[in-house]
Every structure is written in structure tokens, then in C-alpha cells.
Amino acid sequence: MATVLIVDDEVQILRALQINLTARGYSTVTALTGNDALERAAQHPVDVIILDLGLPDLDGVEVIRRLRRWNDVPIVVLSARHGSDDKIQALDAGADDYVTKPFGMDELLARLRAALRRGSSGDAPVIETEGFTVDLPAKQVTRRGVPVRLTPTEWNILELLVRNSGALVTHEEILRQVWGPAYAEETGYLRVYLAQLRRKLEADPANPRHLLTEAGLGYRFRE
């Protein structure tokens, strides 16, 4: 049973998350402030943290920085801040993922599962499908036992999608992480590279089973 520390000063959201997570078999610990969150994380071994940025005492980014001085637990930010600067600050401080409010519970749970997989497998799992295997520690892909040659950019895209397995990764997020902030609007790049990845990995590139397009939003990796 994974233990989730939920940090949010909005009591309704806190309770809703606690109810949904408990119903799905998670154990939960809650905190309403940044200082409470740091204290709870020190007192209770937790497997993942869901963290709001707009806390009444400490800014959530500062909470992340302080946690990262001694704790590498996966952190999923859940915030009403939609600006790219806020996302960059949180991720640079050490957050593993960023979800904006209002949010879909199914997507949040998928991102939570992805964060838990990264945390429980040394941040370097080996993902197997019926057609190919992605070995993150070795930075290698094989198809029916034969190594597949990927360009650095193809690998970076695939790694990002695999590490967020099951969750939607937006066009903007991929472009920022793979090419940098200046390329956040260049969605044409993604279409080209996803097509190349599908040709190399999918049994039927025209009808992919693992590298899925979410029209107008982004892409999703499905094991």
C-alpha cells in the first residue's frame, strides 16, 4: 500500500483527494501548510507527495526546495497556477510532475501511478510491450531482441512518454523538455518525430497501440 502525503490549504480538495485515494487502496497523510508538510514528511515515510503551490505560510516551490535537501520522494504539483514560469520553477526546484487545477481525477491518478513507478524502481524501469522493450537504465530500445537505433531526440521524447506511462503529456511539455522553452509552439516537430518513432517501434504505425495521439492536446504512452 503506497502512502501519499496530500498538501493543500483548500479543505474541500484535500478531503476529495483523500476520499478518492483511500477508495483506491492508498494510505494518506494530509497537511494544510508548507511547514506542516515538511514536518509530516519527516515524521511519516511517504511514497509520493501531492503538493499545492499556493500555501498560506511557505510557497510550494520553497517547500520543494527544502524537501529536496534531504528527500527524493516523487512530488506531483497540483496547482491553480497555469503560467509556464510557475511550472518551470517547480520542476527546476525538483518536482516530478505538474498538474493544473481544475483537474481530472483519472489523469491525476495516472500521473500519480507514473510517479510511484519512477520512485519504486530507482527512477529507471524497464518497460516491456508485446512488440518492444524500453530499457531506461541502458538508454536502449529493442524490438524482438534486436536493438533499435534512435536519434537522441527520438530517445528523449520516448523516455519522457514512458516515464509518464498512462498519463497525457502535452505538446508544450514535450517541446519545452526536449527542445527548450523557445520551441513551445513548434508542434510540427512532434508530428515528425512521433511518426518516426511509430515506424521504428509500432507493428502497425498507422494504427499505433502504444504511442497514442490525443488530438489537439499531446501524446500518451500505453504499455
TrEMBL record:
Example GO biological process: positive regulation of DNA-templated transcription
Chief localisation class: cytoplasm
Keyword Transcription regulation annotated: yes
One Gene Ontology term of the molecular function aspect: cis-regulatory region sequence-specific DNA binding
Protein name: Transcriptional regulatory protein KdpE
Modified residues (4-aspartylphosphate): D52
Compartment(s): Cytoplasm
Known DNA-binding region: 124-223
Domain OmpR/PhoB-type positions: 124-223
Ranges where the Response regulatory domain occurs: 3-116
GO terms under cellular component: cytosol; protein-DNA complex
Alphabetically ordered keywords of this record: Cytoplasm, DNA-binding, Phosphoprotein, Transcription, Transcription regulation, Two-component regulatory system
Function: Member of the two-component regulatory system KdpD/KdpE involved in the regulation of the kdp operon. Upon phosphorylation by KdpD, functions as a transcription regulator by direct binding to promoter regions of target genes to positively regulate their expression.
The keyword NADP appears for this protein: no
